Automatic annotation (TrEMBL):
Protein name according to UniProt: DNA helicase
Originating organism: Aporhodopirellula aestuarii
AAA+ ATPase domain span: 316-487
Main location: cytoplasm
Composition-biased stretches (Basic residues): 18-30
Length: 754
């Protein structure tokens, strides 16, 4: 049966369409459709996802929800699956969620320990060298954002540049008094970041009196005006996300009906179905996929494996997986699946673990789907897509003019309190803040009705997998799509999974796993993805792999293809033999006429070093080589924005950034480059020691990502003597040697120190 006729079908496992959340005709959007009170941005908890944050669900916690909240607090202490989640047998529902709960607890402990260690360090140089805090900041300006949030601009005194830091847009932070180690500070989210200034969005204005009252502590800064205080910003554990995940997991445990079935399929208890067939009747016959494919009016130019993947996904009754090796158009394919679902009258929730991945999907959907809304903090959304954010669309609503007036009034009030802080006594200042609170309340109530309208109209809602539950209420969708699924922990996916009966996940388990701080949690499986587990559990019947890639020269692709994808990748004709020298205005030279180069530093005495005051590693010798190569590339006519330098260690990134100042040139860790591409990529491997220790370079997935970012040229700089103690790198080196792309650093006289 074709998926086109899906809507009329009702199998034993299907809930009839009318009972599901419907398509356009009969959207049942959870509680907010029935006129329950809507509240915006009620607490700092709502920071997770956006300036706009609204409670579209019931105002009071229902008994059921209260139970869920309680359940989310109980803590299992021993791992039901001490070796990670098994894939050779069905999982027990309670054991499974206990395991996920334990992962989250261990991760939270690791996060708290990290923050506690960080806040112990008081020396400015030491604390800032961790990259997790910025100290000695002045509050230089502030504004109000939507929902009456305060946007605080912080900068170093006398305009110094901010130190290298990991406080990215979207990072949860704590703003505290730098001179007072006992100050618990106020929570916020980084909303904007420049070299000299950082902005945070917060629900609480940093009024020193208010803070003292809150903590009940007498402060030596009691009489200081706001402008006289120096602040400190620390990266903080993301408690909001954790709580949301725990609540979703608690709910998933008790799910019944279609939701319960999807859970049981994902736990390997029930067999997945495609086109109404059970797994024992799978794999789906190729003719069935071909039939389905023939019925689809594709909106994008897709290659045959991509078209098959779309047809396959649309035939799934429970879940389907699209495996997308680097550059194979996974996101392009997923966008087509969503567009087809919308054409069939379905409403879709499109998610990914990171904001960047959500935006990559949104970029494609914008052209395919009439009405798409991006939920999330606008500051975390690509600038050219901000119009599609909920905030952007609310702003366009005619009633927003009133909100703008109210916001202006709010700002004036705050400025008055600030300007005259020496003259306004504490009581009057309290009244001013109370008035500000009242205005914020008015702003929120007006915004909530506009928000509801915008969300109701959307065919597709795009968000990170950390879903703002208050905003989306109990809303369900016909289909949930999750991109870059291998970058999310299993626990991180349940908020999304709970919202539909059908799930399409796309990703590549051979690329980066989710970041997990706790070694203990990682040891019991937290880094293993749901997608990987399902592939192992059900095999080829549940996934389609994309095989034609549109990024890399064939030689750059080949190693990755052979090593990670059973040699299945094919370079499209448009990229198969492209080289740097084919770019306009680039000179032909050995550097630009070949796709690969490994410069081996073995024996040249370029040993790794530990960063002073830090734990990260660097390699100045390799940095010198990279700098010289960048100079030569530039000389050949390659522009800065066409080059990327990737280093596995932050200290090497810091070193190179401090020494290279080329317009558009990007220098980052591997994690910063997943999903990206550049004409030429230089990798500095850093590790060089007599013991042959390679640390986390041993995770081959990391190297797979790093080596597949280059379109026309991949240059590796590393010590073969150290790296090749590991089989994987021995294979890489052999591959480069066989391609005639190996050179010892001794062949480059200009690159070795005297
Ligand atoms: N069928 C196609 N024909 C031509 N170009 C395509 C096709 N499919 C994808 N591309 C191009 O290939 C590039 C990669 O596509 P996309 O970003 O969808 O891939 P991805 O698999 O999600 O990437 P990543 O490896 O970064 O996760 C894009 O420039 C896209 O336009």
């Amino acid at each position: 049966m074709s998926a086109r006729s899906r809507k009329g079908r009702s199998t034993a496992v299907d809930t009839p369409k009318s009972k599901r959340s419907s398509g356009k005709a009969g959207k049942a959007h959870g509680n907010h459709a029935s006129g329950h009170e809507v509240r915006l941005g009620k607490s700092s908890d709502s920071f997770g996802d956006g300036i706009i944050s609204g409670k579209l669900g019931k105002k009071k916690k229902s008994a059921k929800n209260a139970k869920i909240a309680d359940a989310s607090e109980s803590q299992p202490r021993s791992a039901p699956y001490p070796h990670g989640l098994p894939t050779d047998r069905p999982l027990d529902v309670n054991d499974y969620f206990d395991q996920l709960h334990l992962w989250l607890d261990l991760e939270a402990e690791a996060e708290r320990a990290r923050l506690a260690r960080l806040r112990q360090i008081r020396s400015q140089r030491d604390v800032e060298s961790t990259g997790q805090a910025i100290v000695g900041l002045d509050l230089v300006d502030y504004h109000t954002g939507l929902a009456g949030r305060y946007l605080l601009d912080l900068a170093k005194p006398s305009g110094q540049e901010l130190p290298m830091n990991r406080l990215k847009v979207g990072s949860p932070v704590v703003l505290s008094n730098d001179a007072d180690p006992s100050d618990e500070g106020i929570p916020g989210v980084v909303s904007h970041r420049k070299n000299y200034q950082i902005q945070i969005a917060t629900d609480i204005f940093p009024d020193p009196d208010a803070q003292n009252a809150k903590t009940g502590k007498a402060s030596k800064h009691k009489r200081a005006s706001i402008g006289e205080i120096r602040y400190r910003l620390d990266l903080s554990p993301d408690e909001t996300t954790r709580k949301r995940q725990l609540a979703a997991m608690a709910k998933a445990r008790g799910e019944r009906g279609r939701g319960g079935r999807l859970r049981d399929v994902l736990l390997g208890i029930e067999a997945p179905r495609f086109d109404g067939k059970k797994i024992d009747a799978l794999p789906l016959a190729e003719e069935t996929i071909a039939e389905e494919r023939a019925e689809i009016k594709f909106r994008t130019e897709l290659n045959p494996p991509q078209k098959d993947a779309v047809a396959f996904a649309l035939l799934a009754d429970d879940f389907a997986i699209i495996h997308g090796p680097p550059g194979t158009g996974k996101t392009t394919t997923l966008a087509e699946v969503i567009a087809q679902a919308v054409d069939r009258g379905e409403r879709v929730l499109a998610c990914a673990a990171s904001n960047t991945a959500v935006d990559n999907l949104l970029e494609r959907l914008e052209r395919l789907v009439p009405y798409v809304v991006r939920v999330g903090h606008p500051a975390r959304v690509f600038e050219h897509l901000r119009e599609l954010t909920l905030d952007g669309q609310v702003d366009k609503d005619p009633s927003s003019a009133v909100i703008k007036d109210l916001r202006r009034e709010l700002e004036q009030l705050l400025r008055f309190a600030q300007r005259d802080s020496r003259n306004v006594d504490r009581r009057s200042r309290g009244e001013l803040f109370a008035e500000a609170g009242r205005i914020r309340g008015q702003i929120r109530s007006l915004e909530r009705s506009i928000v509801r309208g915008v969300l109701d109209r959307a065919d597709v809602i795009c968000t990170t997998t950390t879903i703002d539950e208050e905003l989306l209420g109990d809303e369900r969708f016909d289909l949930i799509v999750i991109d870059e699924a291998c970058q999310s922990t299993e626990g991180g996916m349940w908020q999304a999974i709970l919202r539909a009966d059908r799930l399409i996940i796309a990703g590549d388990h051979c690329q980066l796993p989710p970041t997990v701080l706790s070694d203990e949690a990682a040891a019991i499986g937290m880094r293993d993805s749901l997608m990987q587990r399902l592939v192992h559990r059900f095999g080829e019947s549940v996934y389609r792999r994309l095989t034609v890639q549109y990024r890399m020269h064939e030689s750059i692709m080949r190693f990755s293809s052979d090593h990670f994808y059973e040699g299945s990748l094919v370079a499209d004709a448009s990229v198969r033999s492209h080289l740097l020298c084919d770019l306009g205005d680039v000179d032909a030279s050995p550097l630009t006429e070949t796709p690969l180069l490994w410069i081996d530093t073995a024996g040249a005495g370029m040993e790794e070093q530990l960063e002073p005051d830090g734990q990260s590693k660097l390699n100045p010798g390799e940095a010198n080589i990279i700098i010289e190569l960048v100079r030569q590339l530039q000389e050949a006519g390659i522009e800065g924005h066409e080059i990327a330098i990737i280093a596995p260690y932050a200290a090497q990134v810091r070193l190179l950034r401090s020494r290279l100042d080329l317009d558009g040139l990007e220098i980052d860790t591997v994690d910063g480059f997943q999903g990206r591409e550049k004409e030429v990529v230089l990798l500095t491997m850093v590790r060089s020691n007599p013991e042959g220790i390679i640390g986390f370079l041993a995770d081959q997935r990391r190297s797979n990502v790093a080596m597949t970012r280059a379109k026309r040229k991949l240059i590796m700089v590393g010590d073969s003597a150290t790296l090749c103690s590991h089989d994987f790198y021995a294979d890489v080196l052999k591959y480069f040697e066989e391609a005639g792309a190996y050179q010892s650093v001794f062949e480059f006289q200009t690159l070795i120190p005297e």
